[in-house]
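Aim 2 progress update. The chain analyzed this quarter is reproduced below.
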Amino acid sequence: MYTVRLWSVRHARGLRRVYVFFSRLAPRLAPLVRWLGRRRAEAMLRPVERATKGFMFDCRSCGQCVLSATGMACPMNCPKRMRNGPCGGVRADGTCEVDAAMRCVWVEATEGTKHIDPDHRTRPTPLLAAIDARNAGRSTWMRVIEGHPETPFQPPVSERRTPESRLGPFETACRAGKFVVTVELAPPDSADPRALLDRAARFDGLVDAINVTDGAGGNCHMSSVAASALLVAHGYPAVYQITCRDRNRIAIQGDILGAAALGVQNILCLTGDDVSQGDHPQARPVFDLDAVSLLHIARGMCDQGEYASGRKLEVPPDLFIGATANPFVPPYADRVANLEKKIVAGARFIQTQFCFDLDMMEDFMREVRQRGLHRRAKLIVGVGTLGSAKALAWMAAHVPGVHVPRSLLERIAGASDQRLEGQRACVEMIRALARIEGVAGVHVMGHRNEDVLAQVIADVRG
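Predicted structure tokens:
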């Protein structure tokens, strides 16, 4: 089945032509469907469609077929059910973060899209709606016959209407054009808020915002929304990271409202790491949404004042909404297209994965500038340091999405004080990034390494 799926990707252009021909011809069957009755017609059509698509595309019968928009690679084969991929965890060899024996479905989709349209990188990438569970097992051919094929959605994105006097400190700093600095904190394994606040205090006066991770790596900690609210209550601008891994769209929207009610002004939308590498590998992941559809829903709540269901909110949240990007994993040349998709869906700021390779970042930013994306969202580049070359090499080998050049590993390994050399390299990286047009700031990361991170930021600020 997998071999046939790859054949379909390689022949995506021809298969796309077959689909276009069918979609033009199919509406002529509508009178026959009306004569048979929709239920009977679908009962006859569904097994044929399931068998054909199952053989050709390894179809999962989601009832919202988007093959013509995804290079003839079914996105439902993605373990994270991403319909607007790829995620940031693709391995260096193009295999899946969750299943290393399988090629990333979105790497395949990108290849198929190139076969269909060699100039696809110059065109906007279609945004695909989140799965509607009610359609599972239903025939999408029937909708084509009825003249209602699956179409890309247009997010309800509007200009920010919030008066400047009501903007949060982080958004104000971004708008002012200053080189912003954010830092990442993992919530504590404690019910005592002091554990979080003591660590946050190390960054007093040093950063423009503090990101609060949401079960990073699939590990359990204090909830991100509660930790973010605690920081805000004590005067720290917080960025509430919210992932799709653990909640369906009902819970996510409730948490967004709750965060806004508690004073949180910034959220970062992520798909989330898989649970298999965390401390609860027996847990069942949700992935009801992906990061793009989460952006779509969050912007709908803020801009249109309504839930994803269309039901109106009494008072909508007013949030500075961001997303993530990873320029350092396959498909490298097409990562900007995924970034553009998130900006179109409503991201106003972007934070990237760790940058240890300046050349790759410069290549990425060159394409970003060509598309004018740096004028539509603030790009904040992830940086960081670890205590030794061994720790850095472990992260590069075991954390999907992290790329560390061998030259940097050798430099730190050869130093008499590896921790200090890592700090120097991080400071140098930040200063180099500040000189790249379109880079709006840095996002400093390092798990439970607050003293070192604070020193790095102080050195840069000084």
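The mean pLDDT is 92. The chain is about 40% helix and 10% strand. These observations will guide the mutagenesis experiments scheduled for the next reporting period.
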